[in-house]
Amino acid sequence: MVEGNEKRFPRCFRCDDCNWHGASFRAICPACNSAKIVEASIADKGEIVDFVPVRFPPDSLKDVGPYVSALVKLNNGCKIFGIISGSSEQLSIGTQVSIRSFDPESRRLYFEPI
Ligand SMILES: [Zn+2]
């Protein structure tokens, strides 16, 4: 999807037995103890399942300005944290978003409402 950045782009894993999804690799499925963890493809769209407006970003994110820290459930079932710049006024649980960009330096993943 993002050519050249595959290795550093956030990854998604799933359990072949119970369909558990996670953003970090586990040798053993935390849901059913299966060892059949396989890499799932990353979907580029999803919906917000939780979000927190950040008015005063930490030093590492000062350049972003006010932003929203969002937990997004991608359409393949993987949940992943990302940043939505701007205010949270137009956002709610269930808002559809798509991946806007990924910065491999800072590992920031940006979403935008669709
Ligand atoms: Zn499982």
Question: Would you write up a description of this structure?
Answer:
By secondary structure, this protein is mostly beta strands. It contains no helices and eight strands. It has strands at 12-15, 21-22, 37-40, 45-54, 67-74, 79-85, 96-103, 108-113. The strands form two sheets. It has a five-stranded antiparallel sheet with strand order 6-5-4-7-8, with no helix packed on it. Strands 2-1-3 form a three-stranded antiparallel sheet, with no helix packed on it. The model has no long low-confidence stretch (mean pLDDT 87). Bound molecules: zinc ion. Residues 15, 17-18, 20, 29, 31-32, 34 line the site of zinc ion. Residues 15, 17-18, 20, 29, 31-32, 34 line the site of zinc ion (ZN).
Quick gist of this model?
The protein is an all-beta fold.
Distance between the termini: 18 Å
Q: Structural class from helices and strands?
A: mainly beta
Helix content: under 10%
Q: Could you tell me the radius of gyration in angstroms?
A: 15 Å
Features of this protein?
single chain, 114 residues, mainly beta, OB fold (Dihydrolipoamide Acetyltransferase, E2P), five-stranded antiparallel sheet, three-stranded antiparallel sheet, 8 strands, 43% strand, binds zinc ion
